[in-house]
Amino acid sequence: MSHYRTFTAHDAVAYAQQFGGLADPASLVEAQEVGDGNLNLVFKIFDTQGVSRIIVKQALPYVRCVGESWPLTLDRARLEAQTLVEHYKHCPQHTVKIQHYDAELAVMVMEDLSSHRIWRGELISGVYYPQAASQLGEYLAQTLFHTSDFYLHPHEKKAQVARFINPEMCEITEDLFFNDPYQIHERNNYPAELEPEVAALRDDAQLKTAVAALKHRFFSHAEALLHGDIHSGSIFVADGSLKAIDAEFGYFGPVGFDVGTAIGNLLLNYCGLPGQLGIREAASGRDQRLADIVELWNTFAERFQWLAREKTRDAALAFPGYASEFLKKVWADAIGFAGTELIRRSVGLSHVADIDTIQDKEMKLSCLRHAIELGKALIVLAPRIDSADELVARVRQYG
Ligand code: ADP
Ligand code: MG
Ligand code: MG
Ligand code: MG
């Protein structure tokens, strides 16, 4: 018998008092629901001074932005909490701290990051965090290396893969990234003016073959414990600080998926900036985004190679040069997955504010077309884009 019930603000305060691990739990008096995501309830818990002290997040048994007609597993709260706990072990400086979780209530209590801002909003308004890209590269290298076969004992790795089976959340990704935009589907969401571009996606055999290969890797390559949803809305930043949150899509998948999601969201921002800031004002932000992508990849690859040299436990995988061969495949995957992110965020169910909030209709259409064309090019050209500099050159070539 499950004890699940949807929390009221009052429940959230009581829960935080009991499980928040604070020295002065009685000072917690009030909760405000601040969830702006698509899926869950997020309560900020305030003390008598009106200071937000801790966060209570609860999964709902359905997709919040759609309603009860789309039921969704509560097990995602366990997967989110356990993924973040695992990532925190390997990269505490860039992972939100989970204080407590309860699988039956599908609830977790976590560190309050109100001193930080969601990176997406900052990227849109042109506030630059010069360390964010390298810190994200560091987070990805530490979490993905330490949950891979380079580092885990083979028995431990297999036990972990089983613990992080996440079929329902994976199915959402499988559908939204790799199916919906390439077929007629009621979940798709794009302006009628884009019908020619979207019809062209459905008719492009070369593109659909490459997308099939990416989906196949998402299904079958249990390389490391991914965050699974590491877009700029799942990342908090402050001066010199970066923290990942919201890992309910965590599962063992291809390393390039996390790297590609991160790169894809920087590229979505790149595509939207002219609509947000004006064409002239956007230029320097766009240069920063491309520099961010190079920095993210270089930090990730250098740190991963260093970890592989210092800490690989498997004798065969430790062979000099193997880690860099592996990273070539990760790079090609990442470019392809970044392309699918550009397309699904333009055509599919779930959009990004970087483009969606553009007021001028013609400008918004032009940014959406740009994202679709760039996404297509990346998916098809991925095997031939063999360095971060080459990626930058290709992106500039597409506008
Ligand atoms: P969802 O899974 O529904 O997308 P998120 O974990 O992304 O939920 O949280 C939604 C919003 O709640 C975030 O954009 C942020 O505004 C707020 N939030 C989430 N976690 C925290 C936290 N640890 N500290 C402060 N605010 C948070
Ligand atoms: Mg979220
Ligand atoms: Mg899967
Ligand atoms: Mg989420």
From TrEMBL:
ATP binds at N40, K57, E111, D112, L113, D246, A247, E248. Substrate binds at D229, R344. Keywords: Amino-acid biosynthesis, ATP-binding, Kinase, Methionine biosynthesis, Nucleotide-binding, Transferase. Homodimer. It is an enzyme of class 2 (transferase). Pathway: Amino-acid biosynthesis; L-methionine biosynthesis via salvage pathway; S-methyl-5-thio-alpha-D-ribose 1-phosphate from S-methyl-5'-thioadenosine (hydrolase route): step 2/2. Catalyzes the phosphorylation of methylthioribose into methylthioribose-1-phosphate. Its EC number is 2.7.1.100. Belongs to the methylthioribose kinase family. Residues 31-263 form the Aminoglycoside phosphotransferase domain. The gene is mtnK. SUPFAM superfamilies: Protein kinase-like (PK-like) (SSF56112). Pfam families: APH (PF01636). One of its GO terms (molecular function) is ATP binding. It comes from Franconibacter pulveris. It comes from the Bacteria. It catalyses: 5-(methylsulfanyl)-D-ribose + ATP = 5-(methylsulfanyl)-alpha-D-ribose 1-phosphate + ADP + H(+). One of its GO terms (biological process) is L-methionine salvage from methylthioadenosine. This is Methylthioribose kinase. InterPro entries: Aminoglycoside_PTrfase, Kinase-like_dom_sf, Methylthioribose_kinase.
